[in-house]
Design brief:
The chain is mainly alpha-helical. It has one domain. Helices cover 76% and strands 3% of the residues. The protein has a two-stranded antiparallel sheet. A hairpin with a 2-residue loop joins strand 1 and strand 2. It is elongated and about 45 Å long.
Length: 135
């Protein structure tokens, strides 16, 4: 009887220990490629700003296009997983998107008034839409 009770307690403790970390996939920050969601978001925002600030001519716009398409794809993937974050993690990404939007739109207005704005129009408008969905 004592052995059975001890064995039952050991099994119960093992099950509790096994499932202790299994609260679902709602951590404050999910990791992707070794970066937390917040770090990934900041990296994407920094890369976007750096890329757009380097656009000064038709050739630089053409060079920036595939870079921005890749960044936008990563934004879209992050947006799709935003719901997997904790409430705080979702809020953090929303705030980051909101803070980045004025600078992104300013860069876009600068480029869009140039003769080469048509090259980047689709990807930048899509990026603005994706970030808007993250708000």
């Amino acid at each position: 009887m004592k052995i059975r009770l001890s064995l039952t307690v050991m099994v119960a403790l093992s099950i509790i220990a096994l499932f202790a970390g299994c609260g679902g996939n709602k951590p404050h920050e999910l990791e992707r490629g070794g970066l937390s969601a917040g770090d990934l978001m900041q990296s994407l925002l920094d890369r976007t700003a750096a890329t757009l600030s380097g656009v000064t001519s038709r050739p630089t716009a053409e060079d920036a296009l595939p870079v921005l398409e890749g960044i936008n794809e990563e934004f879209e993937n992050l947006r799709k997983t935003q719901g997997d974050l904790s409430d705080q993690g979702q809020s953090d990404l929303s705030e980051m998107a909101a803070r980045a939007m004025p600078g992104l739109k300013d860069n876009w207005r600068r480029i869009n008034t140039q003769s080469y704005g048509d090259i980047l129009r689709p990807v930048v408008e899509e990026m603005i839409g994706t970030l808007t969905e993250m708000l």
